[in-house]
Amino acid sequence: MKPIAIIGAGPAGIRAAQTLVAHGVYPVLLDEAARGGGQIYRRQPANFKRSPVKLYGFEAQKANALHQTLDDLREQLDYRPDTLVWNAEGGLLDTLHEGRAERLEYASVIVATGATDRILPVPGWTLPGVYSLGAAQIALKFQGCAIGERVVFAGSGPLLYLVAYQYARAGAQVVAVLDSSPLSAQVRALPGLLAQPVTLAKGLYYRAWLTAHGIKVRQGARLSRIDGARRAQSLRWRNAKGEHTLECDAVAFAHGLRSETQLADLLGCGFSWNPLNRAWLPQRDGAGRSSVSGVYLAGDGAAIMGADAAEMAGERAALALLEDLGYRIDSQRCHQLEQALERISRFRQGLERAFAFPEGWAANAADQLMICRCEEVSVGDVRRVVGEGHWEINRVKAHCRVGMGRCQGRMCGAAAAEIIACESGRPVSDIGRLRAQAPIKPVPFGLEVAP
């Protein structure tokens, strides 16, 4: 009998697995990480003994509960950590574990692949010592180290303040936090943010704590460039008062998050433009059903909603799957979950207004700026192709190789879309989306195929 597969052991995937097991279903839970928890609740190695409060702050209780849930389920599901799902098609998943390739047949699948940082490059972003916000967080949580001795955090989004706070609490020297969003935008967004008062209070606390401990927090501050000989040594940033310089030896930056949608694409799911997330996202109904029968979507891989929403969406998607298989489910619970997700959706709208996308980035990007470091494609290369009359993103990719490297556009795709839209005079929603290609992440040549 073919199993039900869950891809991703973050908040959405774990709650989906818990729900299936509670109804007597034995699923396969596949996760690229060594230990479950996802990015937000990334679990430290077994031999590390740092307290959860130091690792997760206010979210320590939630992290512990999620980790304990997975531990309790270990004997009731087929849990496969350190397993990359690098290709997907109707009824089949291609995986990689310890250098061995395997093909898994499934009956239904819940895709809970999470999110990654949205990067808008600046000069010097390829220097050693420059990280995304998510990578900086991984270093702290999973490796127990800081990315530098004097760190600047830049960009926008709630993760900016969270990671800066976590670093400062861990004892790292945080030189400054450069938030590209103006304070006025965050004030105007307050009515929407009040939809989740507890979450709002946590964000305000992080900001106040940083200021109270002497860490400079600058609003409307855009990162201009990162300078250094062999690694980051300083940076320049700009606000309404002009350009400024900061000495540092590490920088972490990003402008919010973007959903990991490649597997949903390979599975044939329909996509539509989502203005709130400024991205093409796989279509799903309120229960998590995709446009493809037997494929369900949950968590930040379907739309950026945060960890609490991911847990709810994972449970709701699992209930939808069970209902489609003929199981009796609690309809009242389904209604409660959908109502809670709707409330969080209103809060997310407030967040997007508070941490506005830097609309002027593409127009101000210099031609020589490297946009795709895998293929060494510059902003000027992209503009040249657009100037030749190509404005659909996959055509631009074919002509200059942007998004054709190891990351398959996961790092450069959003930035390339902004450049193409700006140069062609079209809204970013009109230039299309990069089509997913297998393998979605690098795999070694000469894979050993398990029997």
Key words describing this protein structure:
451 residues; alpha/beta; five-stranded parallel sheet; 15 helices; 35% helix; 23% strand
The proportion of residues forming helix, as a percent range, comes to: 25-40%
Shape: globular
Strand arrangement within the widest β-sheet reads: 3-2-1-7-20
Helix/strand structural class: alpha/beta
Spatial separation of the terminal alpha carbons: 18 Å
Task: Offer a concise description of the structure.
The protein has 451 residues and is an alpha/beta fold. Helix content is 35%, strand content 23%. A five-stranded parallel beta sheet has the order 3-2-1-7-20, with helices on one face.
SSE blueprint:
Blueprint: E1 4-7, H1 11-22, E2 28-30, H2 52-56, H3 60-73, E3 78-80, E4 83-89, E5 92-97, E6 100-105, E7 108-111, E8 115-117, E9 130-132, H4 133-142, E10 150-156, H5 158-169, E11 173-179, H6 183-188, H7 190-193, H8 197-212, E12 216-219, E13 222-227, E14 234-239, E15 242-247, E16 250-255, E17 257-259, H9 262-266, E18 271-274, E19 279-282, E20 295-297, H10 307-324, H11 331-354, H12 361-364, E21 370-372, E22 377-378, H13 379-387, H14 393-400, H15 413-424, E23 448-449
Parallel strand pairs: 1-2, 1-7, 2-3, 6-23, 7-20, 9-16, 10-11, 10-16, 11-12
Antiparallel strand pairs: 4-5, 5-6, 8-17, 13-14, 14-15, 18-19, 21-22
Helix pairs in contact: 1-3, 1-10, 4-5, 5-8, 10-11, 13-15
